[in-house]
Amino acid sequence: MTAPEVHHLNHPLIQHKLTLMREKDRSTSSFRRLMHEVSMLMAYEVTRGMPTHLVEIETPLEKTMAPMIDGKKIALVAILRAGVGFLDGMLEVVPSARVGHIGLYRDPKTLVAVEYYFKMPQEMHDRDAIVLDPMLATGNSAVAAVERLKETRPKSIRFVCLLAAPEGLRNFHAHHPDVPVYTAAVDRELNDHGYIVPGLGDAGDRIFGTK
Ligand code: URA
């Protein structure tokens, strides 16, 4: 069996913007704008290996065959709520992509992920799914979301996060060794409250200004 894939997106622009996002005094509007910019850059990296097909076009000089990516065949799947922060930037780069949402919460007694919302585009068997969640912390909600998504039998699945904890990566790939993870950084560890450290805090709160 081949080792699970972890793609560290170490492009200097992504790293620079991530550093700015980590700063605790950064305003909500600035954090949101950086999230938008970093999402565009990450979309560029995540779609790198996607298949293209040749279409006939006419340049001012002649007819030619030229490659196109079939954007409608891409499904961006946001895990609520912080995953929504990835959408605008990614849709700017892949405007025809379809969008799905998965809502999960953790039952405080059993700690099991419970689904409260699940809406995918039709014909997922024909689509390449890109699952979005900025923080791969324990990995439990990512594991549950991908498990549920697999029931729709997408052509392929990729998982994208800004930050991953080593524990979360191990948990995720123990359950889904077939799903490559794209992350801007793998941080040191999870703290006792389940936060990634050094991290950037609560991604949802920072994107939506709820704290
Ligand atoms: N979710 C967040 O938003 N931040 C973390 O550090 C961990 C989980």
Architecture overview:
Helices cover 30% and strands 31% of the residues. With 211 residues, it is of the alpha/beta class. It has one domain (6-47, 75-208): Rossmann fold. The strands form 3 sheets. Strands 1, 4, 5, 6, 7, 8, 9 and 10 form an 8-stranded mixed sheet that branches. Strands 2-3 form a two-stranded antiparallel ribbon. Helix 2 crosses helix 3 (87-93). The N and C termini lie far apart (44 Å). The relative contact order is 0.17. The model has no long low-confidence stretch (mean pLDDT 95). The structure holds uracil. Uracil binds next to helix 6.
Which features would summarize this protein structure in a list?
binds uracil, 211 residues, alpha/beta, eight-stranded mixed sheet, globular, Rossmann fold, two-stranded antiparallel ribbon, single chain
- How far from one another are the termini? 44 Å
If you compute it from the alpha carbons, what radius of gyration comes out, rounded to the nearest whole angstrom?
A: 18 Å
What is the N-to-C succession of helices and strands? EHHEEEHEEEEHEHEEEH
Please tell me the total number of domains.
Answer: 1
Continuous helix count: 6
Shape: globular
Low-confidence parts, pLDDT < 50 over ≥5 residues? none
Q: Output the CATH class name.
A: Alpha Beta
Q: Mean pLDDT, rounded to whole units?
A: 95
Architecture (CATH level 2) name: 3-Layer(aba) Sandwich
Largest sheet: 8 strands, mixed
Q: In the CATH scheme, what's the topology name?
A: Rossmann fold
Please give the share of residues in helix.
25-40%
Q: Are any ligands bound, and if so which?
A: uracil
